């Protein structure tokens, strides 16, 4: 978006060097940077409506074409696509050019550079957002207004010379804008048409944290979820210092495969736990499928487990994350509430890493028993 804006603006500035300019605009010698700055600023201040005679369009209202602003990978749990349409910018007529470089007789020797500042640049347009952020599906549209305050910019351009009718014309093949702001204020109207409170909350959170993205969840070391960080929207979830309560209330409901030769088929253990508190899993039913081999020590057989695959069903998962957004308790409450209302979708998304955690818990509980007690000593002698 910025590149499109500044290419247009650069064309405006170069027009000040054109021979067809009105007589009151001072022409400059090659390399006379002060003169070039003064002439550019004169055109900006005195011709905000443009100069039709040389094809210079108005700068007080600058239209920009439709833009696909953002599109992240849809393979993960969090993705977003943002389209901007009917974009209009106001405020270029208040710009002040502060420095230029490279406008020599041969402008291809080095980069052309134009620096300046704009007190306030206002960007208006329509937005269309589709995507998914964690468990929240988004299909949003509305009107947005951005205000960029005290914008300082530098445009770095690479150019080539093109000859037409025995005259030299400047051809731009690369423009790199560098921009610094004191403040960016954004308001997205009707972001959630059926929930004005959420619209206000998201806009307020954005404007409180406009300088850097919100780190949605970061709670420790054990990696539960991580999406691609190359885009502006991503999520990383870690768990640390994990403690589970409730295994002592487990009831085993079914076992299979504990034959004299346990390696013939899988070993299977099924059961249920009324309430397992990690946060809280209510009425959890589990099945553990184990692959094992026999290890001989001191002429006895010991069961060695080399794979454990758990499957889990639960009637309800309740989770509460305290201080999720330390400086915004309303947003913490909102995200926790959304999570618990849509827990099934979160479970489906996170099931694989959660089951890996359970596999480690279950394996740790039974592995030591099998290591210390020989398999045959667990059963009555064969008749």
Question: Please, could you describe this protein's structure?
Answer:
By secondary structure, the protein is an alpha+beta fold. It has 5 helices and 15 strands. The chain has helices spanning 2-14, 33-46, 196-208, 329-341, 343-372; strands at residues 61-64, 67-71, 79-90, 96-101, 112-133, 136-164, 167-180, 183-188, 222-226, 236-239, 251-256, 267-276, 280-297, 300-313, 316-318. Strands 1, 2, 3, 4, 5, 6, 7 and 8 form an 8-stranded antiparallel beta sheet that branches. Strands 11, 12, 13, 14 and 15 form a 5-stranded antiparallel beta sheet that branches. The chain is elongated. Mean pLDDT is 79; it is low at 15-19 and 212-222.
Assess the beta-strand content as a share of residues.
35-45%
Average predicted local confidence, pLDDT: 79
Radius of gyration, Cα only, in angstroms? 33 Å
Largest sheet: 8 strands, antiparallel
SSE succession? HHEEEEEEEEHEEEEEEEHH
Coarse structural class: alpha+beta
- The DSSP helix count reads 5
Enumerate the spans where pLDDT stays under 50 for 5 or more consecutive residues.
15-19, 212-222
Gap from first CA to last CA: 82 Å
């Amino acid at each position: 978006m910025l590149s499109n804006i500044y290419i247009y603006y650069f064309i405006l500035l170069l027009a000040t060097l054109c021979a067809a300019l009105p007589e009151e605009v001072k022409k400059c010698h090659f390399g006379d940077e002060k003169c070039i700055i003064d002439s550019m600023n004169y055109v900006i201040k005195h011709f905000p409506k443009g100069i039709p005679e040389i094809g210079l369009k108005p700068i007080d209202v600058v239209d920009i074409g439709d833009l696909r602003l953002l599109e992240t990978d849809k393979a993960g749990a969090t993705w977003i696509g943002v389209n901007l349409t009917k974009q209009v910018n106001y405020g270029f007529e208040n710009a002040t050019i502060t420095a230029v470089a490279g406008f020599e007789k041969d402008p291809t020797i080095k980069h052309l550079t134009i620096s300046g500042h704009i007190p306030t640049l206002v960007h208006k347009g329509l937005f269309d957002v589709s995507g998914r952020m964690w468990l929240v599906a988004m299909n949003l549209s509305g009107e947005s207004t951005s205000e960029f305050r005290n914008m300082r910019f530098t445009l770095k351009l690479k150019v080539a010379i093109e000859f037409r009718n025995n005259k030299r014309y400047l051809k731009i093949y690369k423009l790199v804008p560098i921009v610094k702001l004191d403040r960016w204020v954004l308001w997205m109207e009707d972001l959630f048409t059926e929930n004005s409170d959420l619209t206000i909350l998201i806009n307020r959170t954005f404007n409180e944290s406009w300088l850097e993205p919100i780190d949605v969840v970061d709670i420790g070391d054990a990696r539960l979820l991580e999406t691609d960080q190359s885009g502006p929207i991503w999520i990383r979830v870690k768990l640390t210092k994990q403690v589970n309560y409730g295994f002592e209330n487990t009831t085993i409901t079914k076992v299979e495969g504990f034959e004299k030769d346990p390696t013939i088929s899988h070993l299977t253990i099924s059961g249920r736990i009324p309430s397992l508190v990690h946060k809280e899993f209510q009425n959890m039913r589990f099945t553990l499928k184990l692959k094992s081999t026999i290890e001989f020590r001191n002429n006895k057989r010991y069961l060695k487990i080399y794979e454990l695959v758990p499957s889990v069903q639960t009637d309800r998962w309740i989770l509460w994350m305290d201080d999720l957004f330390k400086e915004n308790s309303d947003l913490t409450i909102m995200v926790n509430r959304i999570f618990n209302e849509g827990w099934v979708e979160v479970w489906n998304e996170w099931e694989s890493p959660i089951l890996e955690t359970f596999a480690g818990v279950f394996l740790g509980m039974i592995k030591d028993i099998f290591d210390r007690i020989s398999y045959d000593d667990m059963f009555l002698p064969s008749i």
